[in-house]
Design a protein that fits this description.
By secondary structure, the protein is α+β, with helices and mostly antiparallel strands. It is built from 25 helices and 11 strands. This is Transmembrane protein.
Length: 571
């Protein structure tokens, strides 16, 4: 299926590239440096606990389901910081190998060099850089699964064995760490099944596996009271943002355009971005021409991926203006779950399969005119050199932190069964003295009790996501002085104060359980019973267990398939 020396070359290339990107984080894996992420959306803690929040049945929409539950389960045995860094490293390595395998499988004559080039571009691109800077480690894990899903469908067509379905199910589960990943995987699976049909029965099984992989967030979205729509302003706040000198078209084609201008590598914030994009598109164009010339010899999946690439690129550009934007705003505001689409640049991940094939095609074409080593070096130079600051944690921007002792102390005090924890201040975004830049509050992942998070999000003075009703009621009490009796009536048993201005009534009437340099913890009395019911919690847990079973079965299937393949090739 693959030449004997191909996979080692792909893994070696991917490991080297991933280490070059994540080098500042890797000492945390072996405990010789701080090992936790706390920047923007990336939050890891020594231990995450299973609560209504991590199950996705709290006050907020289940946006991080089953991601948070997965980390909670694994961190019961391994430090949560190690779990996240290891997942991020694995994501980049497997992204390279997966897209490299896809290119070798579909591009005639690609060989090791074409596969290596495809693997490198899958890791070394603006999409990875910007999502890493935003802290979207789970999105990168989902992104890593896409190339493997294509290959898994190809394997199904050749040999539709039960073990192949287990592998596919595991890949769909891995891609479904969050709802966005499930949507990406669903699109890729549909394109693969249409471009390379495996028969009606097998297609129905594959679709059924995808549906099962979505159960954690689908079930929790149905049983949760959280809102499933969003404000239309979110499209403007989170939509694709044109980068310097590129406009919407150039930004989309270069795999950039994240909404947050602070989550962009320095090299993408100046005139250099236009030069880098020209170099990148030069390689892509050469590869597309090479593939077009050999179109009669191509696997039917190649044109299907080409259509996917063109369609996604056009749709992303259309969402930046006029009717396309108006339609997206309407959907986000009125259709349940459509808020998944507002961060449109996430879906640039669907361009990468086409990019990987084009890069492999460019190397294959260049090898006919120059020695193979020069062909690979030329393509690598045009792809990697324009984004030099992806190395070393995107120019040193991504670093680990060490939590002050106060955090472990308050986490040990708060039990699971004496009410929820309210936060003061109630803002969603934090800026801690021990971390660089802004982040989310780590308390929700660190405490055994549910933490009441506002969920409110304001961008440029405009409310994009309002707070939940429960969080708004708690915030109102705290802003009025924090009367313990009123807080207890709302199910609050504890208040974690993260600044020096404790609400007056709280300070006067509540019991001070911890007084540290960074945090103060107050106990407010006997809280009213509040939270998800037993039936809802059971449904959520069952949905997560189904997802976990798919993931574990997929890993077992991969091991069995690998052993069988080795036996087959050794005969």
């Amino acid at each position: 299926m693959f030449p004997g020396r191909l996979l080692p070359a792909l893994y070696l290339t991917s490991v080297v590239a991933a280490v070059a990107v994540l080098a500042p984080l890797l000492p945390g894996l072996i405990g010789v440096a701080p090992g936790h992420l706390l920047y923007r959306d990336a939050v890891s803690t020594p231990r995450t606990h299973v609560t209504d929040t991590t199950l996705g049945i709290g006050d907020l929409p289940p946006r991080a389901v089953p991601q948070d539950w997965f980390v909670a389960m694994v961190s019961s045995a391994v430090d949560g910081g190690v779990v996240v860094i290891a997942a991020l490293l694995a994501a980049l390595v497997f992204a390279g190998v997966g897209f490299g395998r896809l290119a070798c499988r579909l591009v005639p004559g690609a060989g090791r060099l074409g596969g290596v080039a495809a693997a490198l571009v899958a890791i070394w691109n603006p999409y990875v850089a910007e999502r890493l800077l935003q802290g979207h480690w789970s999105l990168l894990a989902e992104y890593a699964s896409l190339g493997w899903i294509f290959v898994a469908v190809l394997d199904l067509r050749e040999r539709p064995e039960p073990v192949r379905f287990l592998q596919l199910g595991g890949l769909l589960a891995a891609a479904g760490l969050t709802p966005t990943g499930s949507v990406l995987a669903g699109v890729v699976l549909a394109v693969a099944l249409i471009g390379r049909p495996v028969g009606l029965r097998h297609s129905l099984i594959a679709v059924g596996l995808w549906i099962l992989s979505t159960l954690p967030w689908v079930v929790t979205a149905v049983i949760s009271d959280a809102t499933t729509t969003s404000a239309a302003a979110g499209v403007d706040a989170f939509g694709l943002r044109s980068e310097p000198g590129l406009g919407p078209v150039g930004t989309v084609l270069s795999l950039g355009g994240i909404w947050n201008a602070d989550a962009v590598p320095a090299s993408r914030t100046m005139w250099w971005a236009a030069i880098a994009t020209f170099c990148f598109l030069l390689v892509i164009a050469a590869g597309v021409v090479a593939l077009w010339r050999r179109r009669t010899a191509l696997d039917p999946l190649v044109p299907a991926i080409g259509v996917l690439t063109a369609a996604v690129a056009i749709l992303l550009v259309l969402t930046t203006f006029g009717p396309g934007r108006w339609l997206l705003e309407f959907a986000v505001e009125h259709i349940a779950g459509a808020g998944l689409l507002r961060d449109t640049q996430k879906f640039s991940a669907l361009l990468v399969p086409g990019v990987a094939l084009a890069v492999a095609g460019a190397v294959t074409a260049a090898r006919r005119r120059v020695p193979s080593g020069f062909a690979l070096a030329g393509v690598v130079l045009l792809v990697v050199a324009p984004l030099p600051d992806l190395a070393w944690g995107v120019g040193g921007s991504v670093r680990t932190v060490s939590y002050p002792d106060d955090w472990a102390a308050v986490a040990d005090i708060v039990p699971a069964d004496r009410g929820s924890v309210a936060l003061w201040p109630t803002d969603t975004v934090r800026h801690y003295r021990f971390a660089d830049g802004v982040s989310l509050d780590p308390a929700a992942r660190m405490f055994r009790a549910p933490v009441i998070e506002s969920g409110a999000l304001t961008v440029d003075g405009e409310v994009v996501d309002p707070p939940s009703d429960h969080a708004a009621a708690v915030a109102s009490v705290l802003e009025s002085g924090g009367a313990p009796a009123e807080l207890a009536a709302l199910g609050v048993g504890w208040v974690l104060v993260e600044n020096d201005s404790t609400p007056a009534l709280l300070a006067a009437d509540a019991r001070l359980a911890h007084d540290g340099d960074d945090l103060r913890l107050y106990q407010v009395g006997e809280p009213a019973e509040r939270g998800a019911g037993v039936a809802d919690r059971t449904l959520a847990i069952v949905a997560h267990l189904v997802w976990a079973a798919m993931l574990l079965a997929g890993i077992a299937g991969a091991v069995v398939a690998s052993v069988r393949e080795r036996r087959r090739t050794s005969r």
